């Protein structure tokens, strides 16, 4: 979809502090918010046992005193690294080795953002604090694909997804997420409020200037003890999307 990344930047820049998105995403429907020095924290609530999309949704579990109910993340609004050779620096900072190709299909490396992530339990306590890596790829039209890489202690869950394909022995889960951005929760219809509570593939975010609707596509998989998540606009061809995962899974 043309200008998908610009749309996400503009809308989520307004709603990142107060939005209440679907359980289905973990921390990265923000796709490179650029007009703030800090994105702030984007809190995810989780009612389903799943992992997916923008990424990586966590399976339910017990950690310390409470049950893990979601994650929270923050990062700079600008790239921390702008050269592909800086991937080694990002890995050192994150504390794990990962693989991010220089190109994904027609999308070429654009920049790296370091993400601060923590799980939250049912009491709101931050646990398992860590750093993750976001790599943006851009095509000639300016469309962006984001690759999010996280060494989480949780395994990808298989309960909620639209499709799964086996790539070289690695299960890769595909999902399509629909999003509605609204100025206020009272602007949501009864059906939208009900759907936001029940549908893991529907995201309702509050804080935009006007009603906007959009959709995004996601792939998520565990590979060599690392969680990888790809996020793209709704115009992304699904088969082309899976080929990007193939370029990561060696």
Blueprint of the fold:
Elements: H1 4-15, E1 42-43, E2 62-63, E3 66-75, H2 87-94, E4 103-104, E5 107-121, E6 126-138, E7 144-150, E8 163-167, E9 170-182, H3 190-198, E10 202-206, E11 212-223, E12 226-233, H4 238-248
Parallel strand pairs: 9-10
Antiparallel strand pairs: 1-3, 2-3, 3-5, 4-5, 5-6, 6-7, 7-12, 8-9, 9-11, 11-12
Whole-number radius of gyration? 17 Å
Cα shape: globular
Number of strands: 12
Q: Which structural category do the helix and sheet elements fall into?
A: alpha+beta
Mean pLDDT: 75
Catalogue the unreliable spans.
12-65
End-to-end distance? 29 Å
Q: Helix tally?
A: 4
The arrangement of helices and strands along the chain is HEEEHEEEEEEHEEEH
Which strand-content bin applies to the residues? 35-45%
Could you give a short account of the major beta sheet? 12 strands, mixed
Helical fraction = 10-25%
Structure description:
The chain is α+β, with helices and mostly antiparallel strands. 16% of the residues lie in helices and 38% in strands. Strands 1, 2, 3, 4, 5, 6, 7, 8, 9, 10, 11 and 12 form a twelve-stranded mixed beta sheet that branches. Mean pLDDT is 75; it is low at 12-65.
């Amino acid at each position: 979809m043309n200008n998908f990344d610009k749309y996400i930047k503009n809308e989520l820049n307004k709603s990142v502090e107060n939005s209440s998105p679907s359980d289905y995403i973990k921390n990265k429907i923000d796709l490179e918010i650029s007009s703030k020095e800090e994105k702030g924290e984007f809190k995810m609530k989780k009612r389903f046992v799943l992992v997916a999309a923008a990424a990586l949704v966590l399976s339910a579990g017990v950690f310390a005193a409470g049950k893990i109910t979601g994650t929270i993340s923050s990062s700079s609004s600008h790239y921390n690294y702008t050269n592909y050779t800086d991937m080694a620096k990002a890995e050192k900072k994150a504390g794990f080795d990962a693989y991010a190709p220089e190109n994904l299909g027609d999308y070429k490396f654009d920049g790296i953002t370091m993400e601060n992530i923590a799980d939250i339990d049912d009491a709101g306590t931050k646990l398992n604090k860590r750093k993750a890596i976001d790599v943006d790829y851009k095509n000639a039209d300016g469309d962006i694909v984001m690759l999010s890489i996280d060494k989480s202690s949780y395994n990808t869950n298989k309960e909620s997804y639209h499709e799964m394909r086996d790539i070289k022995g690695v299960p890769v889960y595909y999902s399509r997420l629909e999003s509605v951005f609204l100025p206020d929760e009272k602007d949501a219809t009864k059906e939208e409020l009900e759907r936001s509570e029940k549908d893991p593939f529907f995201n309702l975010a509050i804080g935009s200037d006007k009603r906007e609707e959009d959709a995004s596509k996601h792939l998520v998989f565990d590979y060599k003890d690392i969680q990888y998540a790809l996020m793209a606009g709704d115009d992304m061809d699904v088969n082309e999307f899976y080929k990007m995962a193939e370029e990561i899974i060696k």
